[in-house]
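We close this part of the discussion by returning to an individual protein. The sequence in question and its C-alpha cells are set out directly beneath this paragraph:
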Amino acid sequence: MSMVTKEKQCQSKEERKGGNKKVKKILSVLLCVALMGTLLVACGGGGTETATGDQESITITVMCAYAIEEPQRTVILEYVDLFMEENPHITVEMQGTNSNDIITSLVAQATNPTDIPTLFFTAADQVATLHDLGLTENLFDWLDDDFLSKFAYGVVESTTMLNGDMGFFPYALQPQGILYRVDRFEELGLEIPTNWDEFVDVAIALTRDSTGGDTIDEWGYSLIGINNGSGQARFLAYLWSNGFDIIYQDEDGQWATDISMDPEFIEVFRRWTDMNNVHGVVPPGVTEIDFVMASNYFAMGITSLMFSGGNALGAIYDGNPDLRGYVGSFMLPGDYPGTMLGTEGYSLSAHATDAEKEAAIALLKFLLENDEELMFWQVSGKLPSTEAGLQAEFMQSPDQRGYIDQVNAGARPTITFPGVAGLRSELGDAYSAVFSEEMTVEEAVARLIDRMEMLLADFN
C-alpha cells in the first residue's frame, strides 16, 4: 500500500464532499459502474522508501494497456526494465489493464484518489472525463518547450484541455482509417471508395464464396459491433465523417447535440446497421465482434476491410506475417474529417507526490527517446507521436499511407466534453439495439435523443 502524505491526509471535508459529488455525477453517466477492485493488484503511488546511495528509493505504478496487448507488450516491458536498470532507485510496477476498462476503473477509484496509479494509460477521447474529476496533472508544468517541440504538428494541442492544461503525455497516434486487402481489390477491379455508399458497394463485392460455391466464406467488412469503447469510438467517427458533430458547445457555451429525427441522420444511422442487418457484409454475430476478433478475421482472410487505427496492423501481422505487402490503408470515406489524431499515452496523477511525479516524467521521457529503432511503433502499427518518428522509412509503406494522409489532411479537435464516456455509452446502446433487432432505427434514435437530453442536463 502506498504511503499517504500529510498533505493528502489533511484534505478538507469540503474538498472530499465536492469531489464525491462530481464522482457521483460521472458514475451516473457511466450507468452505475461497479467497483472493479480485482483489476488492480497494487495501490497507486509509491512514496519514499529506503536510501540507495545518494538517491532515495521510490516506487511508481503504471496502469498500462500496452502491457497486455500483443505484440507491443514485449517491447514496452523490455524498455521499462531497461529504465529500472539505468535508474536503480526507481521501481516501476506495471498494471496491465484492458484499455476499455481503464476509465471505468479510474472513475470508480476517484473517491479515494490516493489509490490512483502514478501514471495511467488514457487517450484523447477519454481524458476530458478524468481531467474533470481532477485526476490529471498539468504536464505543461513538467515538460519544457525544447522537449515539447519533438512532437508532431497538432499533437500537443490534442492533449490540451479547455482550461489550458496538458492532460496527458502523447506516446502514439491512432487516427482512424480503413485497412484493405490490396490483392483482392486488384482481383475484383475495385476502386478506393470516397463515400460510405461506395464503401458499402465495395463491401458487397468482397462478400462471396471464394470457391465458387453457394456458401459465403469471405465477408467484406470486419465491423466491430460490440458495445464497448472500440465499437462506440468507430461509430462516433463514422457519424463525424458524415458531417454530424454529435457534441459541441453552442453560442452560449452550453453543450448541445445535432442528433435528431431528421431524415438525414436517420439515413446515416441506418446505413451503419444495414451493413449487417440488410446487406450481410459482416461475419455472423456482429454484437460479439470486438477488436481482437475483427483483427483475427482480417488476418485469416475471412474479411477484406477493417475500420481501425494502425494498431490493427500489429495484431494482423502478428496473426499472419504472410499478409505483409498485401495490406493497404485509406482515409475514412466522407466529406468531413472522421477522426481525431487519436492521440494516446499516459496521464500523470495529480495526487502523486512530487518525487513520484519526477520519477514518472523520467520514465515517460525514457520510453519516448530510447527506442532508437522505433520498435514499439513498428510492431504495434501505431503512429509515432514525434515529427521524426512520422518521417521514419517504415512509416512510408502502403499499409500506413492512409493514416499519414489523414494526419496531413488534418483531423478533428480533441473532445473536451467531460461526459464523453456517457456519450459513447449511449451511442453503443443505440446501435446495439438495432443490430440485435430489439428496436428499429427510428426507435433507437428516439431513445438516444431522450437520453442525450438527460446527459447534457448533467453538464450544462
About this structure: Residues 254 and 379 are 43 Å apart (CA to CA). The radius of gyration is 22 Å. The chain is about 45% helix and 15% strand. Residues 40-172+344-409 form a domain with the D-Maltodextrin-Binding Protein; domain 2 fold (CATH 3.40.190.10).
